[in-house]
């Protein structure tokens, strides 16, 4: 099975977020929204759900109307494909390539690929300057911008909100913890600051470990899991820390897949 963790540039208008998510039907596993980032993360499975979400996103959102703390290149900003149990990395790459070709042809959307070729940060830095789209028009879509379409392993998107709203400290912490397994940014979100992270290898650098490292440099107000995490990662973390870390069994990919199967069986 293939999972996709779709990032759209809308986190405030709940009616539109619900409308976009509903396009995926039973294949929607999770929705996480942030008003400050003005961004939502929709976790889906299968290869039809990303297309349905893409169509609806382009129907109702306009990148010219967007503002938010998080970097973005389009309303349908990032569409990564991840292989789950029973599928391979090659399957995810094939799904990525098929989606990018479809989005370019059906939606006239410029598509930048990431995965084996380059990283997502490289796409963000180079889109339309040092990098040309791999598929689709060579100029941004007038209302949708562009999309980064990727293949990657399962990661954990994780935010730690600092007790003191010191953006310089948040940026310094992000620089300190950044590594081959941790991507990090210090961001100002409203009147607060956070260290926003992608834990690229969450089995070697887990949420509890990154909490402890950040806490050695600053007082943490709260943690925030964005989307879902693999059960294999949760199982390595002491259960008595789950609440502190904003984790739980129901926040795993596997739990949501089981719930999906139950709902489908019930009709």
Provide the β-strand percentage band: 25-35%
Continuous helix count: 8
User: Which word captures the global form?
Assistant: globular
* Coarse structural class: alpha+beta
CATH architecture of the largest domain: 2-Layer Sandwich
Distance between the termini: 21 Å
Major β-sheet, in short?
A: 6 strands, mixed
The CATH superfamily name of the largest domain is Formiminotransferase, N-terminal subdomain
Description:
The chain is α+β, with helices and mostly antiparallel strands. Helix content is 32%, strand content 25%. The chain is globular, with a radius of gyration of 18 Å. The two termini are 21 Å apart. Keywords: Transferase.
Pick out its properties.
alpha+beta, globular, glutamate formimidoyltransferase, EC 2.1.2.5, Formiminotransferase_N_sf, Formiminotransferase-cyclodeaminase, Chain B, domain 1, transferase, six-stranded mixed β-sheet, Alpha-Beta Plaits, 32% helix, FTCD
Brief write-up:
By secondary structure, this protein is of the alpha+beta class. It contains 8 helices and 10 strands.
Topology:
Layout: E1 2-8, H1 14-22, E2 28-34, E3 39-45, H2 48-60, E4 76-83, H3 89-107, E5 111-114, H4 120-126, E6 147-151, E7 156-162, H5 167-177, E8 182-189, E9 192-199, H6 207-215, E10 220-226, H7 231-234, H8 253-266
Parallel strand pairs: 4-6, 5-6
Antiparallel strand pairs: 1-3, 1-4, 2-3, 7-9, 7-10, 8-9
């Amino acid at each position: 099975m293939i999972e996709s963790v779709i990032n759209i540039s809308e986190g405030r208008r709940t009616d539109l977020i619900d409308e976009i998510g509903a396009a995926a039907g039973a294949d929607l596993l999770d929705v996480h929204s942030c008003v400050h980032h003005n961004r939502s993360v929709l976790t889906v499975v299968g290869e039809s759900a990303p297309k349905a979400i893409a169509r609806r996103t382009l129907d109702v959102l306009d990148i010219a109307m967007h503002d938010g703390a998080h970097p973005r290149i389009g309303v349908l900003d990032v569409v990564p494909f991840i292989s789950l149990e029973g599928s391979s990395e090659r399957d995810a790459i094939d799904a990525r390539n098929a989606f990018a070709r479809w989005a370019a042809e059906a939606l006239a959307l410029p598509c930048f690929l990431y995965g084996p070729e380059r990283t997502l940060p490289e796409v963000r830095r180079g889109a339309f300057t040092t990098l040309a789209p791999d598929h689709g028009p060579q100029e941004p879509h007038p209302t949708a911008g562009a999309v980064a379409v990727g293949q990657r392993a399962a990661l954990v998107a994780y935010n730690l909100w600092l007790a003191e709203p010191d953006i310089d400290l948040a940026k310094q912490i992000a620089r300190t913890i950044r590594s081959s397994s941790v991507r990090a940014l210090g961001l100002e979100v409203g009147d607060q600051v956070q260290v926003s992270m992608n834990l690229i290898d969450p089995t070697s650098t887990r949420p509890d470990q990154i909490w402890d490292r950040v806490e050695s440099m600053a007082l943490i107000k709260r943690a925030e899991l964005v989307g879902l995490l693999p059960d294999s990662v949760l199982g390595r973390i002491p259960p008595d820390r789950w609440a502190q870390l904003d984790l739980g069994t129901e926040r795993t990919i596997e739990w949501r897949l089981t719930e999906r199967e139950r709902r489908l069986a019930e009709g």
